[in-house]
Design goal:
This protein has about 350 residues and is α/β, with parallel strands linked by helices. Helix content is about 50%, strand content about 15%. The chain contains 13 helices and eleven strands. Helix 2 links the parallel strand 1 and strand 2.
Length: about 350
């Protein structure tokens, strides 16, 4: 009788388990990134997808679109907000035309020294709450950031300190950066990322703001230009994961938690991998005769002062002003700026 009793209990438990599996909630997401699948960031994004699918036991299913395959990179945010996609895996900086406040969640310029400081603002400095108000205005939910760290400048001439920016003609992305460098006496020229190599080669520009040291090396920019800033200091853009708010709110809490924690893992892995890649690139470049310029505290303060002077020019909405105030408070707390 005992055997029959235990067998019946086992069958009943199996039936309950089978029923719970059959009724498990499934979250299906369509996500687009501007990164290609073979790029370092694309591979890290694939690891993130694998993590959330595995940790959810397959209850989170992602259809990933690389290289902006569905819509243009700048249109990804709106595509997610309107339901064409579910999540945007690009970056807030693409949305500055919508609201200048996105500048301060996309590329703060001259703010934090390391990705860890910038991430600490997001998670422990009130940043996520402040940024969430901005994203929610557009029916989106900010889930988290992933940022590789400071970018390095490329130059045909020494960039030893702030004085060397005077009359320096370089490629700049559009937006706040042009204002900052103009204040320091440089001559920024806005041009597409794909035009940098030829512009350096033909002498149209004397330098460029392109990407990280390792990425710049991979592009062959230091085959032409023999000077770089390293560690970088001027620009540390962050990519985001932002999802349609209605889609996010409809997810089981467990799925929200899995995705949020996986984003924190992605952020750490991205910063660590880039730090390693940059260190390897630095050693190789020095061996090839490239000079790396590391700025001292006084020159760093000069750049930050120029950046701070430009922030109010872009803080023209209540959301932008709130984010600038949040950053300034935290940067002051970290000792990176003084009141």
């Amino acid at each position: 009788m005992k055997t029959l009793k235990y067998t019946a209990m086992a069958v009943g438990a199996a039936a309950i388990l089978a029923g719970s599996v059959a009724t498990a909630e499934v979250t299906k997401l369509r996500i687009q990134t501007h990164h290609g699948p073979e790029a370092v960031s694309g591979k890290l994004a694939a690891e993130f997808i694998d993590n959330i699918e595995t940790m959810s036991g397959g209850d989170i299913q992602v259809e990933m679109f690389y290289s902006s395959a569905v819509v243009k990179s700048v249109e990804t945010f709106d595509a997610a907000a309107t339901g064409i996609l579910d999540c945007d895996f690009t970056g807030g900086a693409y949305q500055t035309g919508k609201n200048p406040a996105f500048q301060f969640v996309g590329d703060i310029m001259g703010g934090y020294s390391t990705p860890y400081q910038q991430l600490s603002w997001l998670y422990y400095g009130g940043g996520l709450e402040a940024a969430q108000e901005l994203y929610n205005l557009y029916d989106m939910q900010l889930i988290g950031w992933w940022l590789p760290g400071q970018e390095s400048l490329v130059s045909n001439s020494p960039i030893r300190n702030a004085e060397d920016f005077k009359n320096w003609k370089f490629r700049s992305p559009p937006g706040m950066e042009t204002k900052i460098f103009e204040k320091m006496g440089a001559s920024p020229i806005v041009m597409d990322f794909t035009e940098i190599f030829t512009a350096l080669e033909t002498g149209i520009i004397d330098g460029a703001d392109a990407s990280s040291l390792a990425n710049n090396k991979g592009m062959g920019l230091y085959d032409i230009s023999k000077h770089a800033t390293f560690p970088g200091f001027h620009s540390m853009p962050s990519d985001h994961l932002a999802c349609n708010k209605a889609v996010w709110d409809a997810m089981p809490v467990a799925h929200q938690r899995i995705i949020s924690v996986a984003m924190e893992s992605l952020a750490l892995r991205t910063a660590l991998f880039t730090e390693k890649a940059n260190a390897e690139a630095a050693a190789a470049l020095v061996a090839d005769g490239v000079t790396l310029w590391s700025w001292g505290p006084e020159d760093m303060a000069t750049f930050r002062a120029a950046a701070q002077a430009s922030w109010p020019e872009f803080a023209t909405t209540p959301e932008a002003k709130a984010l600038v105030a949040s950053h300034m408070g935290y940067l002051t707390q970290l000792g990176l700026v003084t009141e």
